[in-house]
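Q: My collaborator sent me two sequences in one message, no labels, and asked for predicted structures for both. Can we handle them in order? The first one she listed is below.
A: Yes, handling them in the order given. First sequence, followed by its structure tokens:
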Amino acid sequence: MTPPRLFVYGTLQDDELVRRLTGRRLAWRPAVLEGYARAVDPVVGYPVVRPRPGAAVDGRILEDVGPDALAAFDAYEGDEYRRTTVRVRTADGHTIEAYVYIPASAVSAQQPRGVPAGYD
């Protein structure tokens, strides 16, 4: 099952940008992606997350992200990023699955967009 949520940590935290891309406002809540670090990638010039033990990235979970919104986000992120599934911790302490965009260079060239990257 694919999660109807997207963890965002960069430009997609902007409510107005999300509305322009999807045509609607998406509900969101704070969340943390543990085991990753955030940095600006000099190649793409935007924030990226990469695995790093002990690190954590603050961001948001966008809720009720359907296929049309995912297609809009995929187009916005372009070839530099790939969508994969991760586990994030919500402010109330629960751990849930969500999509996240990571640098394409961190994903196997054989893995199609949207397929989980080895998470249990």
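Q: And the one she listed second?
A: Here it is, processed independently of the first:
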Amino acid sequence: MDIVALNFELTRALTRHIARRVGSAIAPAGKTVAGVMVRLRDVNGPRRGVDMGCRIAVWLRGRSAVIVDAVDRDLYAAVDLAAAKLREAIRRRLKRRRTLRREHANRRRRRQAA
């Protein structure tokens, strides 16, 4: 898991929090996960606004990347929100793959029966 903080210091506590949240979000994908990248940023940049952002990109073997973004006043909350979005996006991607595989098999059976 690659974690990078842009324009601020990454703490050990934040790193552990990210590893826990993102790890549990990608757990349903199992061995299909090829890579994970987490980017943390201050959305307002040098003006030091209150918005912190978290972008998580996950590469799944044999599929395209799943990328989610979240912004919140609190960086921990942004990570939690992004991890929740990631869990849902991965669930949808895996469900779609299973559905397409099932439909393809049904079409093949119908052709063979005809």
